[in-house]
Design brief:
- This protein has 28 helices and 4 strands.
- The chain has about 550 residues and is mainly alpha-helical.
- It has a 4-stranded antiparallel sheet with strand order 1-2-3-4.
- β2 and β3 form a beta hairpin.
- α2 crosses α4, α10 runs antiparallel to α11 and α14 packs antiparallel against α15.
């Protein structure tokens, strides 16, 4: 029976990338001290130094890894994480037993702690507190909260949000961001304790101070993992909870919220002003909108100003005012026009929506044509109304200025729906042939022509276009795979030609590609009735490449 550990080789490859995954395979023998717990695995990996590695599998977050090597400290799933993951997979049958043993140890520790007399337990806690400054600070905060010692509570909460202990040269690296986030989350827990104890008014004040502090320091933290951002979200949620419980002055709260949303230097908080609607009431919302409108008029292209206006106007259902905000800062990509069209359509105003979409198409810069969201919107609306010719015209114009395979496919889809693809196709291919005749064309020379012909299933024309050139390795391989059953004599030289340069390159990914090409060549020889020649070729290649042990293993795996 196959035992699941919560991830697969493919998961490791996807997270690490091909290069790190390949290199990680060579480090499996360097893994030692593997420990298994519920949801995570830890080990040491001998690299340039001995690195501490943890691979975690959590239902909410999926697979993740942490390593204290330089590459891992940048937030990457490094080769050492891959190596630990591969070792775990190789020992999958033993994982349930190790997890059970870990759970048994935890239960044993719990029973022992419960059995200790009060004085011994206190002595143990004191011993830990004396040796762990951070633990002492957290316990001091809990004690101050329990006895309502407000000055100490404030001091401890702000201290927990101070990144200085984790910063080197004034900056918190990604490898230390999680530890800082863990500490900061203690501050959030303390605020929620205050709310639960009936001291929400104090929690409102402290949460504001904490949010201001995190805003000031967030720019000095490498939060690539998003861990500190998650704590910031929890802190903002705690502030909303405190406001709902304490009901602070709505006008003053509106003014604070406007300052918080418009004056923050960094995007630590993704605060939605609508979450404060209940707290602000009618008067507070009116004041917030007044402040937001003034800020937006002073800076109509400012992201913070637009966001605040958009959220307030959407909540109020004021479509015309919302459109005015969007229209004051139209993007040349057509994205703003699309947003306006979608808002108008949602408001039951489809004719105005179509007008805005058409306007966006006229005002869009050329290099954004050929598959934009605005073009998709227009084509869907035209097709839904039976205006197939207009949809095809949109795709045709987009293809003419952006001659990519994606734009060709979109044109083909619309023209087929109109029943005009046979008439449309020659003109589209002629444009691609013109590009093929000028390899320096902005559209990639002949590659798009070949791809389009393959995509159409016109293999004869695609083969001719590839022969006329230029064609890339990917295209030759695709053609060889498609014609090898019907034209093995033409496909075989392609496989053999592509193998030659790979003989000089090492690496498992390269070896897998050689095996893939050999498999194609084998099919060609079988179809030609020349399997003995193929066997001779493989024997010669094995002799020539015999020092590459991993290549030999991979060829064995493919029966080559």
């Amino acid at each position: 029976m196959k035992i699941s550990v919560g991830f697969s080789k493919d998961d490791l490859r996807d997270l690490a990338g091909p290069r790190s995954f390949e290199r990680g395979q060579d480090y499996q023998d360097a893994v030692s001290g593997l420990e298994v717990e519920d949801g995570w695995f830890s080990a040491r990996v001998q690299g340039t130094e001995v690195y501490e590695v943890e691979v975690a599998v959590r239902e909410a977050d999926g697979l993740s890894g942490a390593c204290d090597c330089p590459y891992g400290e940048e937030g990457n799933f490094c080769k050492h994480c891959v190596a630990v993951g591969l070792v775990v997979l190789s020992r999958a049958r033993d994982v349930p037993r190790q997890r059970s043993a870990a759970a048994s140890r935890a239960e044993g520790l719990e029973r022992w702690l419960v059995s200790l007399p009060r004085e011994e337990l206190l002595a143990l806690v004191r011993e830990q507190v004396e040796g762990d400054r951070e633990l002492r600070h957290r316990l001091e905060l809990r004690a101050a909260t329990a006895r309502s010692d407000d000055p100490v509570v404030r001091e401890r909460i702000l201290a927990l949000l101070d990144p200085a202990p984790f910063a080197g040269y004034g900056y918190v690296e990604c490898a230390d961001a999680q530890a800082y986030g863990d500490q900061a989350s203690e501050a959030v827990a303390a605020l929620r304790t205050l709310i639960a104890d009936g001291r929400a008014a104090q929690a409102v004040i402290l949460a504001r101070e904490a949010m201001a502090l995190l805003c000031r320091t967030y720019g000095d933290i490498d939060d690539s993992s998003g861990y500190v951002g998650s704590v910031a979200t929890e802190l903002a949620e705690a502030h909303v909870e405190a406001c709902r419980a304490a009901r602070p002055d709505p006008l003053e709260t509106a003014e604070w919220l406007a300052r918080h949303l418009l004056d923050s230097d960094y995007d630590a908080f993704d605060t939605d002003p609508v979450e404060y609607r209940e707290v602000l009431g009618t008067d507070g919302l009116a004041r917030l909108r007044q402040l937001a409108t003034g800020a937006w008029r002073r800076n109509p292209s400012g992201w913070d100003e637009k966001y605040l206006m958009e959220r307030l106007l959407k909540a109020a259902g004021d479509v015309d005012e919302l459109i005015a905000v969007y229209a004051a800062d139209l993007s040349p990509t057509g994205e703003t026009h699309l947003t306006i069209a979608q808002e108008l359509e949602a408001a039951g105003r489809p004719d105005e929506a179509l007008d805005w979409a058409e306007r966006g198409l006229r005002e869009m810069t050329v290099h954004h044509r050929g598959g934009s969201g605005l073009e998709d919107y227009l084509c869907e609306r035209h097709a839904a109304a039976g205006r197939f010719a207009r949809a095809t015209a949109v795709r045709r114009d987009g293809f003419r200025v952006h001659r990519s395979l994606a734009a060709y496919r979109l044109l083909r889809e619309c023209a087929r729906a109109e029943g005009e693809w046979e008439r449309e196709r020659p003109a589209a291919l002629e444009l691609l042939r013109e590009d093929a005749a000028h390899p320096r064309s902005a559209w990639g020379g002949g590659s798009v022509l070949i791809d389009a012909l393959i995509d159409d299933g016109d293999l004869e024309s695609a083969w001719q276009a590839a022969t006329d050139g230029p064609a890339g390795t990917r295209q030759w391989l695709a053609l060889a795979d498609l014609i090898r059953d019907d034209r093995p004599a033409d496909a075989l030289p392609v496989y053999l030609r592509l193998i030659e340069p790979l003989k000089k390159i090492t690496g498992n990914a390269n070896y897998q590609q050689i095996a893939r090409l050999l498999s194609g060549a084998r099919v060609c020889h079988q179809n030609l009735g020349t399997s003995e020649q193929f066997a001779d070729y493989v024997t010669s290649l094995r002799s020539e490449q015999k020092r590459k042990r991993n290549l030999m293993k991979i060829l064995d795996q493919h029966d080559l």
